[in-house]
């Protein structure tokens, strides 16, 4: 998660919402890392999770990423949950919850519907305070 937080700081340096993600294989080896970049990439889908999954899929030449763990600094949104399902990510670990658009435990609880054909193992709250502080500082600075 520390590497995901480092990615989040890179996003903040680019005036992007500071969210970072890393994907590791079953042995814990880093496959890909990314951060939010919808503004700089002019791409509404360029959330940290999507950026990271795309990099890993290209590297492995496969859109399926079984046996992997995604670490992300903020609870994923609906779009990112869909990507996790399609990629068959085995495990999701996220830091801070996202009360407005989180799709795991907050605004929506998509995996509780029972409608998905894949459900990753989920752990929330790892380094949540650090992630929340980074987000709060970013938004405080933007508000002036």
Overall form: globular
Helix content: 25-40%
**Low-confidence segments, ≥5 residues, pLDDT <50?**
none
> What is the helix/strand order?
HEEHEHEEH
Main-sheet strand order equals: 2-1-3-4-5
| Strand composition percent | 15-25%
The description of the largest β-sheet is: 5 strands, mixed
Cα-atom Rg, whole angstroms? 14 Å
- Mean residue pLDDT: 97
State the separation between the terminal residues, measured CA to CA: 29 Å
SSE topology sketch:
Elements: H1 2-13, E1 20-24, E2 30-35, H2 48-60, E3 69-74, H3 78-87, E4 91-96, E5 121-124, H4 128-143
Short summary of the structure?
The chain has 144 residues and is an alpha/beta fold. Helix content is 35%, strand content 19%. The protein is globular.
Question: Can you give keywords for this protein?
Answer:
144 residues, alpha/beta, globular, 5-stranded mixed sheet
Description of the molecule:
A 5-stranded mixed β-sheet has the order 2-1-3-4-5. It has helices at residues 2-13, 48-60, 78-87, 128-143, and strands at 20-24, 30-35, 69-74, 91-96, 121-124. It is globular, with a radius of gyration of 14 Å. Helix 1 (2-13) packs parallel to helix 4 and helix 2 packs parallel to helix 3. The model has no long low-confidence stretch (mean pLDDT 97). With 144 residues, it is α/β, with parallel strands linked by helices. It contains 4 helices and 5 strands. It starts with a helix and ends with a helix. Strand 1 and strand 2 (30-35) form a beta hairpin.
């Amino acid at each position: 998660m520390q590497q995901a937080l480092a990615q989040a700081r890179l996003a903040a340096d680019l005036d992007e919402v500071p969210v970072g993600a890393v994907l590791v294989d079953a042995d814990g080896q880093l496959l890909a890392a990314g951060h939010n970049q919808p503004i700089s990439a002019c791409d509404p889908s360029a959330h940290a999770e999507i950026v990271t999954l795309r990099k890993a899929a290209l590297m492995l030449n496969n859109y399926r990423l079984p046996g992997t763990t995604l670490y992300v600094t903020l609870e994923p949104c609906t779009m990112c949950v869909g990507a996790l399902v399609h990629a068959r990510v085995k495990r999701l670990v996220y830091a801070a919850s996202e009360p407005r658009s989180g799709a795991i435990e907050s605004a929506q609880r998509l995996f509780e519907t029972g409608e998905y054909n894949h459900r990753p193992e989920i752990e929330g709250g790892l380094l949540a305070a650090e992630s929340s502080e980074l987000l709060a500082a970013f938004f405080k600075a933007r508000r002036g």
